[in-house]
Amino acid sequence: MYIPFEQMPDHARVWIYQANRPLTPAESQLISQTLEKGTQGWEAHGAPLQASFEIRYHQVIAVAVNESVNQASGCSIDASTRWFKELAANLNIDFFNRDLAIVRGESLELIPIGQIKSQVQAGNISPTDIILRPLTDQVDTYRSKWLCPANESYISRHF
Question: Can you give the pTM of this predicted structure?
Fold first, then answer.
């Protein structure tokens, strides 16, 4: 059953999908419709999942499940992955992009992982740049630590 994202408890489980490019307004609307329908009927072994999603920076989608209601199972997680694979095929978007995402105003700049060191050395990534932490697994971490200065992240060794 779908609930608004802001109603998700802090302990809810979250999955982050980062697109390889910004979404157009029409794509965002289609994704929202698809995910609202998907989360509305999302189940784990026949038990409804209390779930939600939100789109950030026109490029990142967070999907959350309140596992205190019912726990997500391998099959239900696979179902959510299928939503993104189908959307990716229809929209020609890679939702499994793992490039470094730097917040630049209201959008993101993606830096390929293999270029992080050289981009730091060239001064294109500063210690105070805000980046997205890709490995976020709970809503409270997503809300409080998903955005962090580069020098407090996994790339800090490059400064």
Answer: 0.93
